[in-house]
Amino acid sequence: MTVFIHNPRRLGALADREGVSFRVWAPNASSVSVVGEFNGWKAESDPMERQDGGYWFRRISGARTGQQYQFEIANGERRFRKNDAYARVIDSKSAISVIYEDKFKWNSPDYVLPNWNELLIYELHVGTFAAGPYNSPGRFEQIVARLSYLKNLGVNAIEIMPPMAFPGERSWGYNLTNPFAVDGVYGGPDGLKRLIDAAHAQGIGVILDIVYNHFGPDDLDLWQYDGWSENNRGGIYFYNDQRAWTPWGENRPDYGRGEVRQYIRDNALLWLEEFHVDGIRVDATAFIRNTTGTNGGPQTDLPDGWSLLQWVNDEIAHHFPGRIRIAEDLLQNPWLTKPTKEGGAGFDTQWDSAFVHPVRQSVTCIEDGQRSMASISHALEFRYNEDFIQRVIYSESHDEVANGKARVPQEISPEDTAGYYARKRSTLAAGLVLTTPGIPMLFEGQEFLENGWFRDDRMVDWKKLETFKGINRLYRELIHLRRNHFGNTRGLTGPFIHVHHLNDHEKVIAFHRWAEGGAKDDVIVAASFSHQPLTENYRIGFPHGGRWIIRFNSDWKGYSSDFNDVGNPEGHVRAEKQPYDGFDYSGTVALPPYGFLIFSQEENEAEEAPAPNQEASA
Predict the structure, then answer these.
(1) Could you tell me the sign of the dihedral formed by the alpha carbons of 21, 24, 28, 29, in that order?
(2) Where among 98, 115, 146 does a domain terminate?
(3) Which of 254, 279, 475, 500 shows the greatest Cβ crowding within 10 Å of its Cβ?
């Protein structure tokens, strides 16, 4: 049962067996009425009572769930109608508020998100992930139909781009007009709940992308909501001075106004309480904490925005412990993921530009000589506040495959996105995502070489799943190793990494991953960023002697017929007592072009060696 943690002031339209209570904030209105299907849209039938603080209230016994309604607001001589700012449903044809009552029955109410060091996030867009009938925008049920595929791939969390109500039929979702309403084109609030319930039944968590850096800009009911504004700006929900500016219009919410702060707080908690989402990803936090979206200074910082983020994160931590809070800031600011008691914003993790940019640059540039192993090393070992969980790492996201950029295969080889180099180097980038400390994330279709750039009118081409079934297998097997499905790569879920081998001349890097160390825990990853195979006696260090089994070879012909199976043919490497790369042991490996190998040991196959220096390598 909903207990209204998310809406303690009972704003909006709240239905029960006897009728509906309506409450709205409109402090500058001279009068407000409720109009709707229940009273013939007549303002004189149901005038609202003014309450303290600029709130208006009316209870209507004849109103029922499913009926359309609005507020008719008078400000002096002007009269106009607005949708409910807390509307839970907006009719997709008339764009009018609809009375909604939560009667959803959950089948998987006890789901708990996996340990965050074992998460594999899959970002998707409802409208394009899978087409609806006659190539219409996709709906929540199309995602439900593919949950078993995602589970088999190894995904245990999906991140949904904003599904809140927006103008028209197609959108990325970041121009939301009604923050509390789930868009009817996608299936409305109950459709989203069915998806979340079905995902939980499959062991898949759901993270929701939410937008507070701006609202709108088009068809925005919140704009000049009660008729008041200054400087012809947005009125009570927005800044009305120079702080209003954002790259998406002069529509930044007023983070210093108590009612607006409450509105945003209520919205964030709605998804966690009523929709059972397992986490939120807050879009463009740089534009919440700074007017210019930079690390800025006193001239451009927004202290009210920072304190709002702190408050929302504290509220979530208090009411919904264990739910993950992700910031998209992209400015490598460690304060985003510091605790609020230390002055931080209180997020658990953040999208990491320190990883994605050097990795994409290294695999998309044309000449091998342009690939910097030092840059890759920094990307692998970078972290916030000495905590590997505080970054989400990826090579593709909705931002990185649009806005003048494209999918990695397209960036590598625009004229041959299915070609050898596009396949080899895009999977090399994915290999780094899935073997580096952090929370790895994929973008829809990445795992079967979706190309082009992201658009809200271009569906994911699921025929490529059959065309590139070998590449899809590569991703699946990598994900299983990353999550330690077979019990022999535990180090890939651990906090520790040490880049112990860096060869910028031959473009090779090798790194050690571990949680506690030892057999089935220590992992060595060796990667080549060169078109030349290294097939004879290439030496790298190992933390222990004995036999190291090749758990993964990205050059295996089973992934693609034109791959070459370059790698130690016996399937393992024997590390001998020969110091190298700072280790007491080393062995020779064969490295494929634009490829990588993953090694670990079985029990009783390691020769003793000193335990790794965790303090130095963490």
Answers:
(1) negative
(2) 98
(3) 279
Q: What is the CATH number of the domain that holds 86?
A: 2.60.40.10
Interior CA angle at 287 toward 251 and 260, to 5°?
50
Radius of gyration of the chain from its Cα atoms, rounded to whole angstroms: 27
Structural domain includes residue 228: yes
d(CA 132, CA 130) in angstroms, rounded, equals: 7
Backbone angles phi, psi at 615, to 5 degrees: -65, -40
Q: pLDDT tens digits for 540-573?
A: 999 999 999 999 999 999 999 999 999 888 899 9
Sheet of 12-16, strands arranged across: 12-16, 19-25, 55-60, 49-51
Residue 487 has pLDDT above 90, yes or no: yes
Q: What is the extent of the structural domain holding 612?
A: 490-617
Q: Where does 117-170 show beta strands of DSSP type E? A: 121-124, 157-160, 164-165
Domain membership of residue 151 (yes or no) is no
> What does pLDDT average to over the chain?
96
- The CATH number assigned to the domain holding 504 equals 2.60.40.1180
**Cα–chain-centroid distance for residue 275?**
17
CA 52, CA 123: separation in Å to the nearest integer? 44
Collapse the DSSP code of 479 into the 3-class scheme (helix H, G, I; strand E, B; otherwise coil) and give the result: helix
Number of domains in the chain: 3
Domain assignment present for residue 90? The answer is yes
In this predicted model, what pLDDT tens digit does every residue of 248-277 receive, in sequence order? 999 999 999 999 999 999 999 999 999 999
Residue 118 lies in a domain: no
305-347 pLDDT, tens per residue? 999 999 999 999 999 999 999 999 999 999 999 999 999 999 9
Task: Give the pLDDT confidence of 211-239 residue by residue, as tens digits.
Answer: 999 999 999 999 999 999 999 999 999 99
The string of DSSP codes covering 518-567 is STTT-EEEEEE-SSS-EEEEEEEEESSEEEEEEEEETT-TTT-TT----S
Local confidence band at 86 (pLDDT 50, 70, 90 cut-offs): very high
d(Cα 384, Cα 386) in Å, to the nearest integer?
5
512: Cβ contacts below 8 Å, ≥ 6 apart:
491, 496, 497, 498, 500, 522, 523, 524, 543, 612, 617
Last residue of a domain, one of 98, 120, 135: 98
Mean local confidence (pLDDT), 528-549:
95
Separation CA 527–CA 518 (nearest Å): 22
pLDDT value, residue 3: 66
Give dist(CA 175, CA 164) in Å, integer.
Answer: 9
Strand, coil or helix: what is 182?
strand
**Contact in structure between 185 and 152 (CB atoms under 8 Å):** no
> 382 by DSSP, 3-state: which?
coil
Q: Rounded to whole angstroms, what are the CA distances from 406 to 35, 400, 409, 452?
A: 47, 7, 8, 6
* Of 125, 205, 142, 149, residue with least CA distance to 472: 149
Distance CA 39, CA 36 (A): 6
Q: What angle do CA 476, 477, 478 make, to 5 degrees?
A: 90
